[in-house]
Amino acid sequence: MNVSSALCNSIIKTLTDQKNKSNT
After folding, report:
1. Per-residue pLDDT tens for 11-20?
2. Can you give the pTM of this predicted structure?
3. Rounded to whole angstroms, how far apart are CA atoms 5 and 19?
4. What whole-number distance in Å separates Cα of residue 7 and Cα of residue 5?
5. Which of 21, 24, 3 is nearest to 11 (CA)?
6. How far is CA 4 from each of CA 11, 16, 23, rounded to the nearest angstrom?
7. Residues 15, 3, 13, CA angle at the centre, nearest 5°?
8. Gap between the Cα atoms of 24 and 18, Å rounded
């Protein structure tokens, strides 16, 4: 598993979590 890949997934997850909080 690439470190950059894990990093991207982590960033995407954080952005998605923030978006979900904004919608709620």
Report:
1. 999 999 999 8
2. 0.59
3. 21
4. 5
5. 3
6. 10, 18, 29
7. 15
8. 10
In the chain, the amino acid numbered 23 is N
Q: What is the pLDDT of residue 22?
A: 86
Give per-residue burial for 2-22: e unless 16+ CB within 10 Å, then b: eeeeeeeeeeeeeeeeeeeee
Copy the structure tokens of residue 22: 């904004």
Scan for tokens 């979590």, then name that residue: 17
Task: Quote the distance between the C-alpha of residue 11 and its chain's center.
Answer: 4
